[in-house]
Amino acid sequence: MERSNLIALMYVLLISQNIIYGAEVEMKVRPGDNITLYCDRSVTHGFFVWIRNCSHENQPSLVIDYKKWDLEIFQRYSSVHNRSSNSHDLHITNISVSDLGLYYCAEIEIKVNKDEKGIISSSEVYYYGNRTTHLSK
Ligand SMILES: *[C@@H]1O[C@H](CO)[C@@H](O)[C@H](O)[C@H]1NC(C)=O
Ligand SMILES: *[C@@H]1O[C@H](CO)[C@@H](O)[C@H](O)[C@H]1NC(C)=O
Ligand SMILES: *[C@@H]1O[C@H](CO)[C@@H](O)[C@H](O)[C@H]1NC(C)=O
Ligand SMILES: *[C@@H]1O[C@H](CO)[C@@H](O)[C@H](O)[C@H]1NC(C)=O
Ligand SMILES: *[C@@H]1O[C@H](CO)[C@@H](O)[C@H](O)[C@H]1NC(C)=O
Fold first, then answer.
1. From the CB of 61, is ligand 3 less than 6 Å away?
2. 121 class by beta-carbon count within 10 Å (0-12 exposed, 13-18 middle, 19+ buried)
3. Closest atom, ligand 3, to C-alpha of 53
């Protein structure tokens, strides 16, 4: 085996190990790239969102909610359904510097509770995957 092939193979093995152990996956991007981020959580009973944490710590997380995708800020996002894992991957076109950050997916379940006085309230419970993807230059 050629040395460059061997290095490529080792790199692939390292990446798959990252996925198995749920560590952060590093992804290098350039402006204009189109990319797909993989979600390791399958849909069971809730609905899906993706969350982006920016590198600037003080900025609030961006929740990429499929139900709001007609909004202009979400124009470059689309959902890719992976049938074999029954998960929703995130496709982003025309990457720019403002897209850099940490991405992870979550399933949200709406729980309806009734307390002892009979008052009904609802809450959102988040279930995260193990995988986070760090987009960097
Ligand atoms: C990204 O996708 C758009 C079409 O959706 C295409 O025009 C463009 O060339 C693609 N860019 C790259 C870097 O592949
Ligand atoms: C995350 O990792 C834990 C411990 O390895 C495992 O039990 C759980 O099923 C994993 N969750 C997903 C969504 O893969
Ligand atoms: C993303 O940011 C939120 C709010 O600052 C924080 O609670 C959460 O732990 C961060 N998630 C990751 C994976 O760093
Ligand atoms: C779909 O999910 C399977 C199992 O998790 C994974 O091996 C495969 O790479 C995914 N395919 C795509 C196109 O995301
Ligand atoms: C990609 O985004 C840049 C700004 O970041 C914009 O100038 C350009 O027109 C966009 N290209 C496409 C094909 O949407």
1. yes
2. exposed
3. 1
